[in-house]
């Protein structure tokens, strides 16, 4: 192989490697953003629920983080499950609330609130109302998955 041919081959390999590196960078950036998102949501969870629930054990909370690459947002789904004892009704009432929020902007995208198996007391996502847990889950799915 002559010197000009080797130079051309070297240039071709260099450009190929640069093209590959350029394409890999966004994935690495998304992975880093996802890692930072998990850390931020863990911190928010610890601040809001240092014991993971209430002292009496009546409520338990969990946070699920997700870095949405399409929106370039760190989102989280807060789920609180609680049991309220009602002496007036002589029964125990289970309640579940969920909140989809932006971890950086501290902005709520939507809320779901339901007692037992009945229809939700509150259910909305970005000004769109919903009437069931299944509908809520369909609405939040694009935010919590890519």
Question: What brief labels describe this structure?
Answer:
146 residues, alpha+beta, 6-stranded antiparallel beta sheet, 2 helices
Give the number of DSSP strands: 6
**Rounded radius of gyration (Å):** 24 Å
**Residue share in helices?**
25-40%
SSE pattern, N- to C-terminal: HEEEEEEH
The dominant shape is flat
> Gap between N and C termini, in Å?
48 Å
What secondary-structure arrangement, pairings included, does this model have?
Blueprint: H1 3-48, E1 59-68, E2 73-86, E3 91-102, E4 107-115, E5 122-125, E6 128-129, H2 133-144
Antiparallel strand pairs: 1-2, 2-3, 3-4, 4-5, 5-6
Quick structural overview:
Helix content is 40%, strand content 35%. The protein is built from 2 helices and 6 strands.
Task: Describe what you observe in this structure.
The structure is a single chain. The chain is of the alpha+beta class. It has a domain at 57-144. Helices cover 40% and strands 35% of the residues. The protein has two helices and six strands; from the N terminus they run αββββββα. The protein has helices spanning 3-48, 133-144, and strands at residues 59-68, 73-86, 91-102, 107-115, 122-125, 128-129. β4 and β5 (122-125) form a beta hairpin.
